Amino acid sequence: MKLRLGMIGGGTGAFIGAVHRLAANLDGLYELVAGAFSSDAAKSAATGVLLGLAPDRVYGSFQDLIAREKQRPAAERVQVIAIVTPNYLHFEPARLALENGFHVILDKPMTFSLAEAKQLQTVAEASGCLLCLTHTYTGYPMVKEARQLLAANTLGPIRKAYVEYPQGWLSKFEEGGDNKQAAWRTDPARSGVAGAMGDIGTHAFNLLEYVTGLQVVKLCADINTVVAGRQLDDDGAVLLKLNNGASAVLMASQIAAGEENNVKIRVYGDKGGVEWQQADNNTLLVRWLDSPAEIRRTGTGYVGSFAQHNARVPAGHPEGYIEAFANLYRNFALTLQARANGTPATPEMLDFPSISDGVRGMAFIEHVIASGKSTEKWTEFTV
What is this structure's pTM? Predict the structure, then answer.
């Protein structure tokens, strides 16, 4: 039985809304049945027509969607609500959805502030509903292979990690024109206290903690605003201490001219290391201290259970960004179905970013900006 999905945001022309819909459709586990796609009722209705939805299931506000869907019979109403709006419009729809008994899929970063994130966590825990945060890069099979290798201590105790996310699309003052993506992502009123560190730095931070299985306990940040006239950071680097004593380096930049979205991570133990990058996402490079390097590939029979669970086609047939995004949707759906059936969800099903990851992501943003502004530099990481 498909899960009935509602969507808030993601109207016609919205990049991430289309990505969410593709991801939800890929495995046939969801059916989009309702939406409030824009705060403009006419635009929302027009998007509903394009998506083939019943007119009475297309709403002019998220409040209307949640109130009217809750009034529907249990067998008809939406079960999961995907929220694909800018940061400052995450908290209220998510809070209202959870309080009314709807599970939530939420774009990152989770909220506008750490205070909101903590409040949302409290609401979620009281509601008994689940929340999936769409940190896309954790959905790649070879990222999961790296995590499983490190969790098994195959490479020995982790000593060092490097994670980077270079982009070049904000190398010029794009927010001064009609670039809507640039306009809201560089606006403190809509993006929050961070620019690049909130937009892509949180992805790098989440990837680091996910792959290593460790947590950041202290950081030291150098935060820059390079492009004249820009209100938020567009470049930065962070030194990090992990809770096993290892050190890490994180870089996030949106003024690396010519770069696209090649997020990359390297982690080293005392026996060897792993390296993964999105530009070659079906490959995991495993290096050994005293042996030749290995190349592990998506879709092969020799990878671990998590990589196998999240691959759809045989080796040599490339899977990419949409499939990684869809893995989050699928694992969330399988977890919800197991819960509904009264059966335990497997670790592979439960492998999706949760509300606790969202809280840590917001803590990262606030600590990084605080460290960047401080003369003391090293900042204790608390949540």
Answer: 0.96
